[in-house]
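Handout for the seminar on molecular recognition.
Each group receives one record of this type.
Step one: identify the two inputs.
Step two: read the structure output and locate the region that could contact flavin-adenine dinucleotide.
Step three: write two sentences on what you found, then compare them with the reference statements printed after the record.
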Amino acid sequence: MKQLAVVIAGASVAGCAAAILMRRAGHKVTLVEQKAEIGAYKQLCTHFIQPSAVGLLASLVPHGLESLACKTHAVLATPAGIIDAGGYRHEQADHALNLPRRVLDPLLRAAAIQAGVHLCLGRKLVAACHAQGEWTVRVAGSSDEQSMKADLLVAADGHSSTLARLLDNPASHYPNERASFFVSCAGVAGIAGAGSLFINHGEEMAFLYPQPDGSALLSCYVLKERAAHWLAARHPQALLADWAAQVKYLPRIEPGMMRGPAYRYRDYPSLWRKPVHAGCAFIGDAALTLDPMSGVGCGFALQSASLLAQSLGTSESVDEALQGYGQAHSKLFAAHAKGIIADSRIGASAQANDKIQALIHSDPELQAKYLSLTGRLIQPIEFQRAVLNRLARFSTRGPGATVSTSTHHGSQP
Ligand SMILES: Cc1cc2nc3c(=O)[nH]c(=O)nc-3n(C[C@H](O)[C@H](O)[C@H](O)COP(=O)(O)OP(=O)(O)OC[C@H]3O[C@@H](n4cnc5c(N)ncnc54)[C@H](O)[C@@H]3O)c2cc1C
């Protein structure tokens, strides 16, 4: 394909990744970001990068990723016992990363500039019009407005995407029945060199992520009534610590160990938009925002950017590239998204969930598959097949038996 003029709205994970890859492919890329500082970053994120995206991320930032991040792996604490990814290695990738957004976001922007992307900070995309195969977009700064032309327009402008609103690409909303709190903690015992803990605690979940500076990030996904009670309290951090003390496998965390604000949300529905609409490509959260409990958003943002760049690289025209991208997006993410959306509901199948966790725990092959699923290295169907094979081998019900495989963080449709 000829060299394209590309305008991308949003210089965060998805936008920077797409910009770097397209610039490397020879296109002329302008990246428009409403935040004015190169060091600005998304605060509402626990920045666990799934194994499925680690290799891609490493290919985008030239040097030193591993010295800035904490190399880690999932340790899943289920009602049946611990499943530790430290004991398994998948052929495609072998670890996850805890990489704070205050490091990741500026790192990606610097890599974009280094690749030759034109980064326009402090400019918000406010209008877009497509006529005769060409885009005209308007971007507003603090005191002026300018217009830009493009052959390809990419929306990487996050879950409340301006471009989705301007181009009328509404999201399907899916309920999330948990609220979330997370806080940085210092002096937590036994986390050095440890994996990242994902703990099922009844209908709630706790996560403990070791960080590059030796601290740990505690995050929890709790019932909304509990969150409302914490929010109404004078010392919510004390209630959070009390709750954490009840969670099996979590080291002791006192309120005095908590540093900085406890970030939170009361409601965070999953949003799903068409990845291609009105001739514009939507990537990252702008196309698919999923329950943060699944920990897939940054990885999927990187991977969707890569799918778009790959499709451009193998197509003869922008239309063909967009069509290919739309198909590839569904193929890679739809089944994961359906499972994650199902896991955002509470109480549907607690008993079946316990059974499936026990089954996984009993079989090393299923454990490995489950970890690959939670790391988004395989499709849900591959894990489901492994479960059915396991049941067919050992169940009197035979190979036709079905089982609910809805599990937190390893979601199934
Ligand atoms: C509580 C919480 C915890 C999370 N934890 C994890 C985790 O552990 N692991 C993980 O992988 N994911 C996690 N996520 C999800 C992750 O944060 C997002 O999926 C990810 O940031 C999506 O990246 P993005 O580039 O698509 O969008 P964003 O990071 O939202 O970036 C959008 C960018 O577009 C810019 N923008 C918006 N509108 C305009 C405009 N009109 N013009 C110009 N610029 C614009 C914004 O300023 C922003 O920089 C979490 C999310 C939440 C809420």
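Reference statements: Residues 9-15, 32-35, 42, 44-49, 124-125, 156-158, 162, 180, 265, 268, 284-286, 292, 295-299, 301 surround flavin-adenine dinucleotide (CB under 6 Å). Residues 318-343 form the longest helix (26 residues).
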